[in-house]
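Handout, section 4.2: multi-component inputs.
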Amino acid sequence: MIQLKTFLLIGALLFCIGLFGLLQRRSLIAMLISVELMLNAVGINFLAFNRFLAPDPAVGQIMVLFIMGIAAAETAIALSIILSLFRRQRSINIEEAAELKG
Amino acid sequence: MNSSIAQYLSAELLTQAIFGLVVLLTLGGALIAVLHREIVHNIFGFATCVCGVAGLFIFLGSEFLAMMAILIYVGAVSVAIVYAVMLSVPLYRKKEPRRISKLAFSFLSSALAFTSLVLIVIRTPWEPSIATGVDWSVRRLGILLFTRYELLFELVSLVLLVAIMGAIITAAVAGKKETGSQPGSGEEQA
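Output:
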């Protein structure tokens, strides 16, 4: 039961749940959470390949560590953009941020 | 009596049960994080999901990354997102209803993505490499991070530093300027 395909399927399911949330939610914070879910799914995939296929078990762990660092940077930037948008529009609803619409 | 219980609770069965629990935590937390309509519940669901992912990391052999996942995601990211909750719509306010067309469209496209991913996973003949290393220690990770992956490590640190500085500037300077003056009135240098 605990084999490569199980982990790949769990990763795929988590990724698609995140994709669904990203497409469907209107609040920017919820969309940010969905993106984090997708990044976690990618991390699971990396570690699964690392555990079952890779020649060197350290490389995949280092890649997942880098993904976590990038995800933290992304959260910081996204939260500051959300704060800035809120000051401008008094709302973080994505459908009201249509100022650039032609 | 005791021995019969021990017989039923073999190590393999216990492992399977714990694995099922971890998968349940991951997917259930992800569903709460996506489907629930209150942001606070979304964040708790996300934290649950990350705890499950940390359990999966342990099953994949990396205790260090499990620790890091809990430290970074539950400890830092979730707390930072909780801070942004005060920007969202208050809990007592009535939510506008979901639009069925948007819901159906996003469900269809993510289901399509899931089916194609599943087909790829099932149909590919995965072959393990011939020689697999056995050294999973944190010590080796540290040595590799400061020798072969030194440049990547420094780059990620730099990206993190620049992102945090940029976040502070975006949140503190740009937002205030926009509320103070009309946008596009010529005071754009800062």
